[in-house]
Design brief:
The protein is mostly beta strands. The protein is 0% helix and 78% strand. It has no helices and five strands. A five-stranded antiparallel β-sheet has the order 1-2-3-4-5, with no helix packed on it. β4 and β5 (81-87) form a beta hairpin. The termini are far apart.
């Protein structure tokens, strides 16, 4: 038996401290989550319900121009500890 989840969450953050190479933040995400149960690669059950993630504390470390390494601790659909890369779509002045 296998389980698969896919989440679409909107995220908002409060930046507590920002330096040239890193920033510390807290935040909240809310949206929808699709959970599936599979047996022998055949979908047996599928549920769509709400999902959330509370980011108690996170850090973004600037790896390149608009690429950041992100580590955060919290609670919700992403678990208690998450790490990954972010690419930010914004224009710099």
């Amino acid at each position: 038996m296998e389980y698969s989840t896919l989440s679409y969450l909107l995220r908002c953050e409060r930046t507590w401290k920002e330096k040239k190479k890193y920033s510390l933040y807290s935040g909240l995400s809310a949206g929808i989550r699709k959970a599936r149960r599979l047996e022998n690669e055949v979908e047996m059950e599928s549920k769509i319900n709400t999902g959330y993630q509370v980011y108690l504390m996170g850090i973004n470390y600037k790896a390149a121009n608009k690429v950041f390494f992100d580590v955060n601790a919290g609670w919700g659909v992403s678990g208690i500890l998450s790490a990954g890369l972010q690419y930010r779509f914004y224009l710099e002045n």
